[in-house]
Write a structure and sequence with these properties.
The structure holds three protein chains of three kinds. By secondary structure, chain A is of the alpha/beta class. In chain A, about 35% of the residues lie in helices and about 20% in strands. Classes of the chains: A alpha/beta, B alpha+beta, C mainly alpha. Bound molecules: adenosine-5'-triphosphate and magnesium ion (MG).
């Protein structure tokens, strides 16, 4: 495995208590593979990725547990110097809002060249030449003009291309893209996703893509991890998760994909209620309050991960994880009628 | 999570009740409930958690009490001059010897009989009578051949003849061997030195005596101050009496500093609070109207504001103060108030206008407009509550800067005119005696600083509590 | 690519247009200052010559003619404006035959030198202390610096001036040294006065720099810089510092104004023969032409400073050219 994340937890110590933003998540990513992490706003997607990047290390009020291994080497306990060497070179990240993620008073060229100068000891001249090439690779128009511009002079889509150019500058083993398309309009979204896919194939890079759009997941993913209230509640290969969905929450996410074949006038499904308070995450399954199939046990005890071995996905590629979901519905004790009712809904 | 057992049963045999799998009834969409409180309650509960703002508030209340009823408690007249205690440091229980009004002193004339030379020790020098703060007299052995003596006074023991510096006085004639010093004496140790002068010039020898001056008060002064009754005044001669207490000392005219600070607080806080109240109100009106009208009117009104803001503030404070302030019997308070108001309202107007423009675009204002609410109602109902936080914070920050302005102008002599005290003019008085009596500058400066500090900290607290965003500007 | 450029590479010079626009508004502001000064001074009851003691009607007439006081107010105003446009501020009332221009020429350089030293001390010190406090947030040194800042901001400047003078005197007494206490005959006379003068601005800039750095600390682009693998020192030097300095640049205009007027007091206390001391004396002696001349001169100087700072800001912050 290229990247192995095990039992990662992140807590923010605030004056009112601690926010348990990420609670004991585990997943892994293989070389060249795409993992899509799905989940609604505030479920801890960004926080978990930033913890993997070690971006919280100089903050005092944060408690990180678990392990993150890249090529088998632990990242969380690295010393500062080593961490700086790995970031941006072996593992790099694209952030949610490209406009605010770029330094407003620094030329685009400088911001890209900086990575090359730092990691590859390029001279400034060289680095700028390389920056133009990188920008061209992201299919931005007039790359040689762009390097001399400032972020406020570019559109959101162009800025995201700049971010991508910057993050692939050192040909990282793994690229984390945190909702790279959320801030962009639909036509640009498609282009950016295409670009990511092409680049990934060219460089044989692994990709972790974060989104709250199941549609994007279908388009990009090899593996899918669904997060809810700081936990991964379903995890598996895309096909398996899509066709043999193991968690009521995932089903609802699926139902909220806008589809062309929907009857006209039928409103999109909305997931009612709001996610739980992360100061005091419930003892049982966090989704209980919003779940159509909630049982008494759900409120009392968090279900363990049940592996779902359906025939359809048993041919899943070697090494990749099996499909599992945290839901009592898969327990042997769960009454038949509930199981049937669950299976019936889309 | 990568490899898990197929069934839960094999890992942990759960002894689970069948009932546990019954549908869960407590399904309530858990909307996060927070106690709903209004803007003011929220702001004040936030303010309550801010210790420095709370302490500042207490200090400000104490200051107001000090200003309003201080002169009822400390009834000393701030204009009364206690000439027996000029520039006296803080004292509560000072005693003084009652001495006759007339100084009984006869210069001693004693021609030299034999050869006598001076040594640096107090050889041949001796005191006449009791050294007091009213006068100190002393005499010395005549030096043969001297045609006069130079007398020096120091507050430390001179180590060498070169340390003596400028003489206090000079006696002509070798037989004039005594000296009376009544020049601004204080109850401390004095070192008097004498050097004989010969025909060929100054002697290389000198002699020094150390004398400690004792607090003393002439009889008639004590009667005048009402310390001793007039009909039995002679009984008190040579006795010690208590002098009037001056908890913060006196100034260079012997006026009680505490009383003057109370009186000065009236001036300083009058200007410091009234001016901001007025200009914040004016600015609110102007800015509110401008923002409300919008369009061309707003543009013209704001252009005018821009011009006044462009005026260098303190420079024009001085000019306007001068322009308004020439007139007989003018204490300088009114011109300063006028100048402060004239120059300060525009920045408030600009702030309020911005806020009003922003509020005007708010959906709820737009909505109530559509519902047919009239303009006046709209302003009062929706706008006022929203700008009060901003106004309060602006006011709190305006007060210390007004106090500073008053102090600055009074200090350079462009503000409050003597004898009216203000904290600034007291500082101005105090600076002249800084080297010898630092308390005269220290106390007024302390009052200014503590007041300004308290208002600034309270302002910081209010700003956080009301969550007001404002650009800090400096004058 | 479907995205189109938001901004075209403009062939004109937005920077120049901006500067010219600002300069025109500056001229208007100076006119306003001159007008306010003129009518402000003529509001004064009585006339400039009434303070002089007994004066024969003939002499009075001559003087009135000499200062143009015999003409109607509006004519005087017109002449005043015309002279200002020519850069002529007239002749002093109290020091006969001395031209206000000469007074300014002689005394302003000293004030300017003092002010520049104070400004350098305040800006460098404020930036350094603010950055130091921000990088040591919530540590002892941060608390100490911020406490000092609050104290300095709350104590009137003249108190520091007086105290420093007292301090030098005590040091001179104790160590037999000879540091200058007052006057101006060499640059060393300006060391302590400029420190005292810059102190308030230093405190203000320290606070500004600290809060601006702390704001930036949580900015998204700093996170990006970390993710790129830059070291903390690199991030500080290349990303934080410049952006944190932007707010500092915006307050340089008001800071110059503060230092200029603060200079009045410092020049008075340290007996430095600058224009500020002269201005205060002129006000005390009601020397009308000197008051008006120096006020307009100072006003113009400050207006120009603010414009210069704005242009400087446009140069430091690339975004400004389009926003304006
Ligand atoms: N620095 C922080 N300090 C305290 N709490 C934080 C911090 N960063 C994130 N959180 C909290 O952690 C939780 C998870 O946040 P996160 O940013 O990971 O959400 P997300 O899944 O990325 O959502 P989105 O789709 O909106 O980006 C949120 O409740 C958030 O309030
Ligand atoms: Mg996120």
């Amino acid at each position: 495995m290229l990247l192995d994340v095990n039992h990662l937890s992140v807590e923010f110590q605030e004056s009112q208590g601690s926010i348990k933003a990420v609670r004991n998540i585990s997943f892994s990513v293989d070389k060249g593979e795409t993992l899509v992490i799905l989940g609604e706003s505030g479920c801890g997607k960004s926080v978990s990725m930033q913890a993997i990047m070690g971006l919280f290390h100089d903050q005092a009020n944060i408690n990180i547990k678990g392990s993150v291994k890249l090529h088998g080497h632990e990242l969380l306990t690295l010393n500062e110097q080593k961490r700086h060497q790995i970031r941006g070179k072996q593992i790099s990240m694209i952030f949610q809002d490209p406009m605010s993620s770029l330094n407003p008073t620094m030329k685009i060229g400088d911001q890209i060249a900086e990575v090359l100068i730092t990691h590859k000891a390029y001279a400034k001249q060289e680095a700028w030449q390389e920056a133009i090439l990188l920008l061209e690779k992201t299919r931005i128009s007039d790359a040689h003009l762009r390097v001399n511009q400032y972020p406020f002079e570019l559109s959101g889509g162009m800025l995201q291309r700049v971010m991508i150019a910057m993050s692939i500058a050192c040909k990282p083993d793994i690229l984390i893209a945190d909702e790279p398309t959320t801030a962009l309009d639909v036509s640009v979204q498609e282009q950016i996703l295409d670009l990511l896919k092409t680049l990934q194939a060219e460089e044989a890079m692994s990709l972790i893509l974060i989104t709250h759009d199941f549609g994007v997941a279908c388009q990009m993913a090899d593996q899918v991890a669904v997060m809810y209230a700081g936990k991964i509640i379903e995890y598996g290969a895309l096909d398996s998760v899509f066709y043999d969905t193991g968690h009521p929450y995932t089903k609802k996410l699926k139902a909220s994909i806008p589809r062309l074949d929907h009857p006209q006038g039928k409103p999109l499904t909305v997931i009612e209620g709001s996610p739980p308070d992360l100061f005091n995450p419930p003892k049982g399954c966090a989704f209980t309050a919003r779940c159509d199939f909630a049982m008494r046990i759900c409120n009392k005890k968090h279900p363990q991960a049940y592996t779902l071995n359906s025939e359809k996905t048993s041919d899943s590629t070697h090494g990749s994880p099996s499909h599992c979901a945290d839901c009592w519905i898969h327990d042997d004790d769960c009454p038949k009628p509930i199981k049937t009712a669950y299976r019936k809904i889309k | 999570m990568t490899t898990k057992q197929t069934s839960a049963k094999t890992l942990e045999p759960p002894k689970m009740d069948e009932k546990e799998f019954l549908p869960y009834k407590g399904r309530t969409p858990d909307i996060i409930q927070r106690p709903s409180r209004n803007y003011w309650q929220q702001a004040f509960s936030k303010l309550k958690t801010n210790p420095s703002a709370l302490i500042s508030l207490l200090i400000i209340i104490a200051l107001v009490v000090f200003t309003l009823i201080g002169d009822k408690i400390w009834t000393v007249d701030p204009y009364d001059q206690d000439l027996t205690q000029i520039s006296s440091p803080p004292s509560f229980n000072k005693k003084a010897l009652v001495i006759p009004d007339k100084i009984h002193y006869q210069p001693i004339i004693q021609p030299s009989k034999e050869e006598y030379t001076l040594k640096t020790t107090s050889s041949g020098m001796s005191v006449i009578g009791t050294p007091t703060t009213q006068f100190i007299a002393f005499k010395w052995q005549p030096v043969a051949g001297a045609k006069g003596y130079q007398i020096f006074r120091h507050e430390y023991l001179p180590q060498h003849i070169d340390d003596l510096g400028v003489p206090l006085g000079e006696n002509e004639g070798g037989e004039h061997v005594s000296y009376l010093d009544a020049l601004r004496l204080e109850p401390i140790d004095y070192f008097y030195s004498i050097i004989p002068i010969f025909d060929e010039g100054q002697s290389t020898q000198y002699s020094t005596i150390k004398l400690t001056a004792m607090d003393a008060i002439p009889l008639s002064d004590a009667v005048e101050l009402g310390i001793i009754p007039i009909h039995q005044k002679t009984n008190y001669l040579g006795k010690f009496i208590h002098l009037p207490a001056h908890p913060l000392g006196t100034d260079y005219l012997g006026r009680d500093l505490l009383a003057r600070l109370i009186e000065g607080a009236k001036t300083s806080l009058f200007i410091g609070v009234l001016a901001p109240l007025i200009f914040v109100f004016l600015g609110m009106l102007y800015g509110g109207i401008s923002g409300f009208l919008g369009g061309k009117a707003d543009e013209i009104m704001m252009r005018f504001v821009d011009f006044i803001i462009a005026l260098p503030f303190l420079l024009f404070m001085i000019l306007f103060k001068v322009a308004f302030g020439i007139g007989p019997g003018e204490s300088g308070i009114f011109p300063m108030l006028m100048a402060l108001i004239l120059l300060s309202w525009p920045s408030v107007a600009r702030l309020i206008r911005g806020q009003v423009l922003q509020l005007k675009e708010m959906p709820y204002i737009q909505a109530s407009k559509l519902m047919g609410a009239n303009v006046f109602h709209l302003t009062l109902k929706h706008m006022l509550p929203n700008v009060t936080g901003l106004l309060l914070v602006t006011l709190t920050f305006a007060i210390p800067s007004a106090i500073f302005t008053e102090a600055f102008l009074s200090f350079i002599g462009m503000g409050v005119v003597p004898p009216t005290p203000s904290w600034g003019s007291l500082c101005n008085d105090g600076i002249h005696t800084l080297l010898t009596h630092p308390h005269e500058l220290f106390f007024p400066a302390l009052f200014i600083s503590v007041t300004v500090l308290a208002f600034n900290l309270l302002g910081d607290g209010l700003r956080d509590a009301f969550d007001v965003k404002m650009k800090e500007d400096q004058r | 690519m479907s995205e189109t450029l938001h901004t075209q590479k403009t062939t004109s010079y937005p920077w120049l247009a901006y500067a010219i626009k600002r300069l025109i508004s500056g001229v208007i502001a100076i006119w306003f200052i001159a007008t306010a000064t003129f009518f402000g001074m003529h509001l004064i009851p009585g006339d400039p010559l009434s303070s002089e003691k007994k004066m024969s009607p003939q002499i009075r007439k001559n003087l009135e003619a000499r200062y143009g006081l015999d003409k109607p107010l509006l004519t005087q105003y017109g002449i005043f404006l015309k002279n200002i446009a020519k850069g002529d501020f007239g002749i002093s009332f109290t020091q006969e035959n001395r031209r206000v221009n000469d007074i300014i020429r002689e005394h302003f350089p000293i004030s300017a030198l003092l002010g520049v030293l104070a400004l350098i001390f305040a800006t460098l010190g404020g930036i350094f202390l603010g950055a130091f406090a921000a990088t040591h947030k919530n540590q002892l040194s941060d608390h100490v610096i911020m406490l000092m800042v609050i104290l300095v901001v709350s104590v009137p400047g003249f108190v520091f001036a007086a105290l420093s003078q007292l301090g030098i005197m005590k040091i001179n007494d104790a160590f037999n040294t000879d540091f200058p206490i007052a006057g101006f005959s060499s640059l060393s006379h300006l060391v302590v006065p400029s420190i005292v003068l810059g102190l308030g601005t230093l405190a203000y800039l320290t606070r500004l720099m600290r809060s601006s750095l702390l704001d930036i600390e949580s900015a998204d682009y700093i996170r990006t810089a970390k993710a790129k693998g830059l070291s903390n020192a690199q991030i500080f030097a290349k990303h934080k510092l410049r952006n944190a300095l932007l707010p500092v640049v915006t307050v340089l205009g008001p800071a110059v104004a503060g230092i200029t007027t603060g200079g009045f007091v410092v020049e008075m206390i340290f007996a430095i023969p600058g224009l500020g001391k002269y201005f205060v004396e002129a006000v005390q002696q009601l020397d009308y032409t000197v008051i008006m001349g120096t006020a307009v001169f100072y006003g113009g100087f400050l207006v120009l400073t603010v414009i210069l700072v704005d242009i400087l800001y446009g140069w430091v912050d690339p975004r400004i050219q389009v926003v304006k």
